[in-house]
Amino acid sequence: MTTTRTALVTGGASGLGAATAHRLRAAGLRVLTLDLAGADLTADVTDEEALRRVVGETGPVDVLVNSAGIVGANKPLVETTADEWRRVFEINVLGTVNTMRLLVPGMRERGWGRVVNVASMAGKDGNPNLSIYSASKAAVIGLTKSAGKELATTGVLVNAIAPAVIATPMNDGTAPDVLAYMTSLIPMKRVGRPEEVAELVAFLASDRVSFSTGAVYDISGGRATY
After folding, report:
1. Closest CA to 28 of 204, 202, 208, 210
2. Is 224 exposed, middle or buried (0-12, 13-18, 19+ CB in 10 A)?
3. 214 near 149, Cβ under 8 Å?
4. Most buried residue, 31, 131, 132, 177, by most Cβ within 10 Å?
5. What is the pTM of this model?
């Protein structure tokens, strides 16, 4: 008898998180979304105690998809403030750390787990006037590589995806000139679709990936150069 695996998708109320939740359900997983509102579980990923409380009621989690994130300020580095940096890093980096610290021990004990962290091409290339976001996603990539090595012999695989611009609500607030610049860098000359990203996440969340961890999978319409 096969036991149905459980996936937790943060930022699951909209955008990439919602598309991923839909795709994982189609693959037969029991999926729980977590977000500030409109999800199966309501919690702030920066609030460790709240996370522990709500996740503690779900039972074992086998797949963790860290999709919660914000873009933050669109402005030159020298005009950014310490508070703007703290806010983005709290959500994009520490939010990812919090869920991993909470759920990875159980995966390790059971000998199987998949963690997929949503980074960004900005974390590899750096986007002008998005220094905070770019740096936060570079941190997610470094975190993924480190954790992947730590857990390499445990059955728990930790990988990241690095999307280019995707048509999601999160990008609705991005300045049009910034969005146009980022789209111009994509050889396919279009933005990606959430369901395209969800397909890659579904692969990384499955048994189909078995010899890859600490890796960054680009989904960029050809933008990635390394």
Report:
1. 202
2. middle
3. yes
4. 132
5. 0.95
156-163 vs 63-66, strand pairing mode: unpaired
Nearest to 108 by CA among 143, 68, 154: 154
d(CA 218, CA 187) in angstroms, rounded, equals 14
Q: Alpha helix (H) ranges present in the chain?
A: 15-26, 48-55, 82-89, 95-110, 122-125, 131-150, 176-184, 194-204
Active-site residue, 217 included: no
User: b/e per residue, 139-178, with b = 16+ CB within 10 A?
Assistant: bbbebbbebbeebeebebbbbbbbbbbbebebeeebeeeb
Q: Residues 133, 181, 217, 226: which is the catalytic one?
A: 133
Interhelix angle 48-55/95-110, rounded to 10 degrees, is: 40
Task: Report the largest interatomic distance among the alpha carbons of the chain, rounded to a whole angstrom.
Answer: 59
- Type of residue at 74: N
**Which residue from 119, 117, 124, 118 is spatially nearest to 226, judged by alpha carbons?**
124
- Backbone φ/ψ region at 222: left (φ over 0), alpha (ψ -120 to 50), beta: left
**Residue 164 structure tokens:** 């280019």
- H-helix or E-strand containing 218? strand 216-219
Per-residue pLDDT of the chain (226 residues; tens, 9 = 90+): 468 999 999 999 999 999 999 999 999 999 999 999 999 999 999 999 999 999 999 999 999 999 999 999 999 999 999 999 999 999 999 999 999 999 999 999 999 999 999 999 999 999 999 999 999 999 999 999 999 999 999 999 999 999 998 988 767 767 788 778 878 889 998 889 999 999 999 999 999 999 999 999 999 999 988 8
